[in-house]
C-alpha cells in the first residue's frame, strides 16, 4: 500500500539532521517542473534550510540558466564533484555541466544513470535537503533515482490541462511502485493575469491539478500562476522566489507546505 503521507511530511519537517531527498517530477516537459524545482530550493533556503539542487534533466538541463551560473564548471576533489555556488545560497550540480553544450543528448541508460550518481553523491557538505529536478516522464534516470538514491518524497508538477494530468498520473505511479511517498501536486500556469487589463484568464484551465490530487488521494500543494514576471526573472537567472513580489510568496507558501 501507499506510505502514509502525513508521516512523511512530519518526517520532512522534523528531521533536520539527516539529508532528505525531494524529487521533483512531471509527466510532460514544459509544464514548469524545473522552474518549480529551482524556486522551491531557493524558498527552502530562504526559510533557513541548507539546500542543494541536482539538475537531473538530461533532456533540457536548465538549472545553470535559472540560477544564473551558466558556463561555470564544477571543480572536483578526491574524485567527488564540488557543487557550484550562487548568490541564492543553493549549491547546484547539473547534467548540463557534464555534457558539452550543444551536444545532442543521446545517452544510453547506463551513462545517464552513472551521471546521476555522480551528481547525487557529490561533495554536498552540510545540507539537510537535496532537491532533484528529474527529467519528465518515466525513464532510466527515474529508475536509478528509485533504485540507488531513493527519494524521501516526490513533488509532482502539472498544468491543469487534461493531457498533462494524464501523464502526471503515470509519473506518480512510478514513485508509488517504488514506495516513494508523494508529498503532493503543484498546479503551475493556472490563472494568467493580463498585464494590461488585469483580467485573469486560464489558458490551460484552472483547478484540474487540485481535482486530480483529490481524486488520487494525494495532497494539493498549491498553485503558481502563469506570470510573465516568472518567465522574465527565470530567463535572467534571478529566481523569482528570491525576490519580494507575490511570486516569491507563492513559492514560500509551497516550501512551507512541503515542510520548510
Ligand atoms: P519543464 O522543466 O517542465 O520542462 P520549465 O520549468 O523549463 O519546464 O518551464 C518551461 C518554460 O515555461 C520556461 O520558459 C519557463 O520560464 C516558463 N514558465 C514556467 N512556469 C511559469 C509560470 N508559472 N509563469 C510563466 N512562465 C513559466
From TrEMBL:
Protein's UniProt keywords contain Ion transport: no
Record-level Gene Ontology MF annotations: 4 iron, 4 sulfur cluster binding; ATP binding; ATP hydrolysis activity; ATP-dependent FeS chaperone activity; metal ion binding
Positions bound to ATP: 27-34
KW Transmembrane (keyword) present: no
Keywords carried by this UniProt record: ATP-binding, Hydrolase, Iron, Iron-sulfur, Metal-binding, Nucleotide-binding
Listed GO biological process terms: iron-sulfur cluster assembly
Subunit and partners: Homodimer.
Entry function: Binds and transfers iron-sulfur (Fe-S) clusters to target apoproteins. Can hydrolyze ATP.
UniProt record similarity statement: Belongs to the Mrp/NBP35 ATP-binding proteins family.
Name of the protein: Iron-sulfur cluster carrier protein
Species the sequence originates in: Novosphingobium kunmingense
First-to-last residue of the parent protein present: 57 to 316 of 324
Amino acid at each position: 500500500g501507499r506510505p502514509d503521507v502525513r508521516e512523511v511530511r512530519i518526517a520532512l519537517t522534523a528531521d533536520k539532521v539527516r539529508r532528505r531527498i525531494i524529487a521533483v517530477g512531471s509527466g510532460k516537459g514544459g509544464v514548469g517542473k524545473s522552474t518549480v524545482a529551482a524556486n522551491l530550493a531557493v524558498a527552502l533556503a530562504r526559510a533557513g534550510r541548507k539546500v542543494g539542487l541536482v539538475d537531473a534533466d538530461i533532456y533540457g538541463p536548465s538549472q545553470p540558466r535559472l540560477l544564473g551560473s551558466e558556463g561555470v564548471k564544477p571543480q572536483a576533489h578526491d574524485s567527488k564533484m564540488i557543487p557550484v555556488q550562487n548568490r541564492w545560497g543553493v549549491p547546484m550540480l547539473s547534467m548540463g555541466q557534464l555534457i558539452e553544450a550543444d551536444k545532442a543528448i543521446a545517452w544510453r541508460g547506463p551513462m545517464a544513470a552513472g551521471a546521476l550518481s555522480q551528481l547525487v553523491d557529490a561533495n554536498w557538505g552540510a545540507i539537510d535537503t537535496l532537491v532533484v529536478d528529474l527529467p519528465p516522464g518515466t525513464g532510466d534516470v527515474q529508475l536509478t533515482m528509485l533504485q540507488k538514491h531513493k527519494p524521501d518524497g516526490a513533488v509532482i508538477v502539472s498544468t491543469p490541462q487534461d493531457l498533462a494530468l494524464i501523464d502526471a498520473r503515470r509519473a506518480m505511479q512510478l514513485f508509488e511502485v517504488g514506495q516513494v511517498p508523494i508529498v503532493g501536486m503543484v498546479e503551475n500556469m493556472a490563472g494568467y493575469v493580463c498585464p494590461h487589463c488585469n483580467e485573469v484568464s486560464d489558458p490551460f484551465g484552472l483547478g484540474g491539478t487540485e481535482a486530480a490530487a483529490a481524486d488520487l488521494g494525494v495532497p494539493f500543494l498549491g498553485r503558481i500562476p502563469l506570470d510573465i514576471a516568472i518567465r522574465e526573472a527565470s530567463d535572467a537567472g534571478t529566481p523569482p522566489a528570491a525576490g519580494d513580489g507575490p511570486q516569491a510568496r507563492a513559492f514560500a507558501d509551497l516550501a512551507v507546505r512541503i515542510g520548510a
